[in-house]
């Protein structure tokens, strides 16, 4: 099922992770650092909530 938020914000790539029967969607803002920052949104939020925080 696709939702309007399936469109990735500018500068991000929508990717998917499958674990058993479950498919999770996430946004990858890229970057060259070996460090990863994982941010989880709340119940009524979506990954686009964090778009303004991406590096310029």
- What is the N-to-C succession of helices and strands? EE
Distance between the termini: 31 Å
Portion of residues in beta strands equals 25-35%
What's the arrangement of strands in the largest beta sheet? 1-2
Number of distinct beta strands? 2
Helix/strand-derived category reads mainly beta
The overall pLDDT average reads 80
Rough shape?
globular
Uncertain stretches of 5 or more adjacent residues = none
Which percent bin holds the helix content?
A: under 10%
Largest sheet: 2 strands, antiparallel
- Gyration radius (Cα, Å) is 12 Å
> How large is the count of helical segments?
0
Topology (elements, then pairings):
Elements: E1 13-19, E2 22-28
Describe the structure.
The chain is mainly β and 56 residues long. Helices cover 0% and strands 25% of the residues. A two-stranded antiparallel sheet has the order 1-2. It is globular.
